[in-house]
Structure formats: C-alpha cells, structure tokens
C-alpha cells in the first residue's frame, strides 16, 4: 500500500467525524463563505516568477521540516515577498497542519490561498471556502473521473480555482476537463519519495495549453525554475526549500529577487 492509500483511509474517517460535528449549513453560514475570492490562476498568468509558497511543518518524506514557526508570520512574510499565492497544508496526521492554519493565514494576508488537502468528499470543498481558501487541490491519483468532475464543478460554483495534480500520463488523460484551471505535475514519486524535475519536463508536452501548468515538489533553485519555464510552466509550488529556514518570507524574497534579476 502506498502512502496516498494510507492517507485516504485515514481521511475518510476524519471527514466522517468532521461532518458529524459541523453540519454543512453551519459552514455555509460562516462569514468567510460569502467573501469574494482572489484568483491564483490570474496571478500566475500575470507573473514573471510564479511562486506558490507553502506552509509545511512536516511530511511523510521528511518528517520534521520546521515546527517552530507560526503560520501568521509565515503568511505575512510570503506576502511581503510578493509570491503569487500561499499553499496551506491542512492535514494533521501526516503534515502537522490544520484548518486553523488556513483561517490564521486568511486573517494575516490577502494572497490567494490554496487549501492543500487530500480531498475525497464535497464536504471538504465547502470547508475550504468557509475557512478562507481561494483554491482547492484535486489529486488525480485518488479520485475517479466522475469525482473530479463533481468536485471541480462544485468548486467553480463557489468561485474557487481548481488545481488538478497528476503524477503520470494516465492520470492526466483521466482527468482533463474544462472545469479545471491549473494542471500541477508532482515531481515526487510517492512510492520512493524521490523527486525528479524530469517528470514535469516529460509531461509538459502532453498538457493542453488551455491550462496553466504548475510544477510541484523538489524545487530548490532558481536554475530549476528557469529550466521549467522553458517547458511552459507558469507556477512553481515550493514548500521545504522555504520552510526549512528560520524565516521563510525572507528566503522567498531572496529567491524571487534572484529569479527576477
Ligand atoms: O511532501 C511529501 O512528503 C508528500 C508525501 C505524500 C503526499 C504528498 C506530499 N507532499 C505534498 C506536496 O505536494 C508538497 O508539499 C508540495 O509539492 C511542496 O513540495 P516541496 O517543495 O518538496 O516541499
């Protein structure tokens, strides 16, 4: 069983519990649910750097990355760095995140916020909007085509952007549909945890140009971004490289300054 299978088994239990504690109508009545969202895809299209900076305390591949920072400071730092958007991991068991992290990030910055989660139920999309997200992630490896359609259409009806993540051609062919905004190629092999930017380079040729292309995971240098830009990538999701430092905002600022110089 790979790590995604394990995560999904736990996630189903977690979502069932959350549903029994907070009914959907309560989420829909929250102040944030009605707010106007901020589009990540528009920011990426207009940007020369395309950085989506992640808040990530730990992960299955790296265990501890940084447990000593608070999410508000990280969000403020990323906004000062002028990143295009912030990704907030909300999974607790494997990544040490929470929906409170999303709420605190929302209260601390005006960046487009991606709820980085293993979405397996429409309930989590309603939650994403109610806790301040502008974008949801859908993972091709854990969803059927019917689920991707249902989930992405619900997200669009709530004015949320949709980032669909793939690891290979099969997931891409299964998932392509007009209700997606961005196609993200994850460079991390979830069986071995090895990262290879070749995955993004190889899959770029078969991603239709209607979608903004995002490269995810294992990006730690400006040279890597320049190489990926040549393959049509407009977005770059970076977690560990910023979060392993004492000040992720400063690290992102230096990175973007180098990239744009
Ligand atoms: O990061 C992991 O170990 C991981 C394991 C299993 C499923 C997902 C995982 N990561 C989620 C992500 O997509 C990354 O946090 C994101 O792309 C940033 O990656 P990085 O820059 O390498 O921290």
TrEMBL record:
CDD domains: IGPS. Keywords: Amino-acid biosynthesis, Aromatic amino acid biosynthesis, Decarboxylase, Lyase, Tryptophan biosynthesis. The keyword Magnesium does not apply. The keyword Amino-acid biosynthesis applies. One of its GO terms (biological process) is L-tryptophan biosynthetic process. It is an enzyme of class 4 (lyase). Pathway: Amino-acid biosynthesis; L-tryptophan biosynthesis; L-tryptophan from chorismate: step 4/5. Coiled coil: none annotated. Residues 4-248 form the Indole-3-glycerol phosphate synthase domain. GO terms for molecular function: indole-3-glycerol-phosphate synthase activity; phosphoribosylanthranilate isomerase activity. It holds the Pfam family IGPS. This is indole-3-glycerol-phosphate synthase. It catalyses: 1-(2-carboxyphenylamino)-1-deoxy-D-ribulose 5-phosphate + H(+) = (1S,2R)-1-C-(indol-3-yl)glycerol 3-phosphate + CO2 + H2O. Its EC number is 4.1.1.48.
